[in-house]
């Protein structure tokens, strides 16, 4: 058996996973640490590179304190992480400012000056839109895209910007901290939307850099996800409690590796993810984009394959909001009754246990209450940083149970909306693999099946799909796997949920109303923001 260490760097915490690989990926041990997301009044969302690193160090040492596997037996290290962050570092790899999260939406003026002017299609200047679509297959038309974060720092923090030597994404920063080498995997390079992903042209695009005023010298060498980025250097090894010289692989972003960890690796395979954010992703072998719905085929972890990708900002994050602001007392009482330790993983699982227990008997439609899960704006199928969450349809008889149920329904209504938008360009699969923390609850899985009308499959430990994907690319890099196409045979379905035709019918009028809420309130959202 070969042993692999995978770091899953999320928005709310790091999960460190030890896998044994033989005929399957077996999770042998895991440990986690949470860290804060700093949400600022001006729309900023930042995290600390030191928080990420400290979380890795503490969770790694905890993991090995409870397993018989020694650090010297680890064949390789890999990463799965949140994407579309901006980590600007100096020449030695130290961030020049706190890293900006994918959720940061401060760059309103930068996107207006940079692309949202003149003759426009889908909000983007036609003379920048068309070259972008030709070269990258997508366009930087969201205020949350890394390009506009870069331009925001350039405009608002010139001293920090002048010190920058490297533009990295989250996991690429952590790889550099492990190895001392500065690289970026193909999927992270694509996420900058400065990467030419046309067959035979792969690499940083000088035209895109010039068109948007980006310093080309900040962009690091590009590697594949299964490539070895370097070896664990002695200093990092000492802090982590690992063996110096251990191979470190490029890994990938969550949007690339979670699908692999879900076993959705064949062309036409669709998976749905519900974690902090949420998405619908379908594997394709061609580039495509739907600018009207803000969907594009993004470069995946495998060369020549793309993920047709539709994302919402807050999915599981809405359940944290329920915990913190709507049902804190009830959840604390539930945890006390269950005698749950307050660890990162156990608290996460207990939240879903509580949700399941609370809403399992509420009928479809939550008594006429509809929740919009746009707690930090939205990307797809509409781009609106001003959009907000709301409960629509509250009556005198409405209680917390209906409201919590409506939160779950609202997330799944939005996922169905994105799924149907994908069907305009390609055929999504049935069954669909469902992963992330949202897939821990049988009630949630059945609700997703009933709302979408599709058969839903889950895998073992669905909340660890990203870490499984990270282990898979390391296994491919080490030659343990012949290629990533064979991953599905390692990841069978653990449960299957068939939709109820009757409940699907009952959900239909609520879903159609949900789809109309944003357009009916767009001007009001903007007015509230001002």
TrEMBL record:
* Keyword Transferase assigned: yes
Domain of life, per lineage? Bacteria
Q: What species does this protein belong to?
A: Hornefia porci
Looking up SUPFAM superfamilies in the UniProt record yields: Actin-like ATPase domain (SSF53067)
Q: What is this protein called?
A: Carbohydrate kinase
Per UniProt, residues of the Carbohydrate kinase FGGY N-terminal domain are 3-257
Name the family.
Answer: Belongs to the FGGY kinase family.
Q: Where's the Carbohydrate kinase FGGY C-terminal domain? A: 273-476
- Name the Gene Ontology biological process terms: carbohydrate metabolic process
The record's keywords, sorted A to Z, are: Kinase, Transferase
* Molecular-function GO terms, alphabetical: kinase activity; phosphotransferase activity, alcohol group as acceptor
The answer to whether the entry has keyword Translocase is: no
